[in-house]
Amino acid sequence: MSDQAEQVARALPPRLLERIGAAVMRPFREVAARLKASLWLIVAVGVIMASLVLIAGLSKTFALIGVVSFVASVVLLPRPDAEHALPGALARPAATARTASAMHVMADALPDPVILLNPAGHVLFCNAPARGLFASLREGSHISSVIRTPEFLDAVSGAPDRGRAVTVTYAERVPVGRRMAATVAPLTRGTERGGNILVLLRDLTEGERINQMRADFIANASHELRTPLASLRGFIETLQGTAKDDSGARERFLPIMAEQASRMTRLIDALLSLSRVEMNAHVPPSDLVDLNDVLNHAKDTLDPLVRETAFRFDVGRFPRPAIVRGDRDELVQVLQNLVQNALKYGDKGGQVRIEAKHIPSLGRQGGRYAIAVIDNGPGIAPEHLPRLTERFYRVDVASSREKGGTGLGLAIVKHILNRHKGELAIASMPGKGSTFTIMLNEARASQPDKGAATG
Ligand SMILES: Nc1ncnc2c1ncn2[C@@H]1O[C@H](COP(=O)(O)OP(=O)(O)OP(=O)(O)O)[C@@H](O)[C@H]1O
Ligand SMILES: [Mg+2]
User: Fold this and answer.
1) What is the model's pTM?
2) Of 55, 86, 117, which residue constitutes the final position of a domain?
3) Which of 159, 271, 313, 365 falls 20 to 30 Å from 101 in CA-CA distance?
4) Per the structure, how many domains does the chain have?
């Protein structure tokens, strides 16, 4: 090698030299591989030609031309199975294609959004959840067309050189407010650089909302318990101190103390009831229950309360047995909670009506039973309706507390109905009363008619 050539060689990085060497050697390796693969065929052709020379007197020149042409055809003609015969570099493009398609299959099987980018940040592939997340996501477009957060884009542009995965969280306002975590992972091995980039997305909104709800729930429950407890402690201290020998004060305080204690009992009962229903949320009830039986039982337990309040209470029935898969006690509790609300928030001397209606099956939807609890009380303003079934949500906290309300009654109703795969519909207008309708699916094993029942 001349001095100049040596200088040039020294100036080139070792990896580049390796690559040039590999490129120069590639045709020789291919020829060697083809010859090796067809060696026995070449030997066989050689033997046949030699036999023809010896036995049939074929000209040696012709025989040599025949063998040389055969070897040339083995070396030069394109072969469909070349990629299988050739090891190493020649097989690489096919192997890369296979790896990419295996990765597409894997990404498609993942439940979370996955986007594969080239080193410049253009989308090479995205799975169905990713397309569901971003309607405008297209293969070939730049990732910044769907995620514009600077931290995320920095993570993507830095990925090819960083060589390790990073996770960034960001908030989105459009089309819906949500918090996302994006893991940006360069697909490179060891110290390699410049490979494609895998982006894995996770929606954090739901998890964070549940955590917030849990924290709110504990804060609300402790607050609800703390108020009657503080009041009880105040009365006890007064009776132990200044009002020690005051029998009049004792007479006045004791009923209030008893009321505070029973308020705490009600709250704890409601909390236990809610947690019991929540615990069984994923176990659908299996018993067959006749809703007329539930209506009868609810009426029996509510009648004494209705008598105390001077309300008119009419309970309708289904004309035939209305069989659902359900838990009788839980369904009775649903009706009790709804009727208690109607009595509690309705105007004194008003009316509470329960209507029962069968909704026949329509198309693929099976038949349903609807039970509506209707009152002619003050009604509820529309802005409160979507939040009524939240735990501890009350339209008027002071008035609910005054009436012994814990704010958990409708949350229990909703959980019981969820477990029964049923629904709760609330319709109300201020000044026009409220209608709470529960809907339950007809059981498949419906019993034959037994005639109409009256109530
Ligand atoms: N029939 C109704 N008419 C008017 N307001 C109602 C009616 N039913 C419920 N509400 C409103 O919805 C709120 C939530 O009801 P929910 O039954 O969950 O709690 P509560 O009645 O306050 O307490 P609890 O039922 O645990 O004793 C009530 O505080 C009340 O403001
Ligand atoms: Mg209630």
Assistant:
1) 0.62
2) 86
3) 159
4) 4
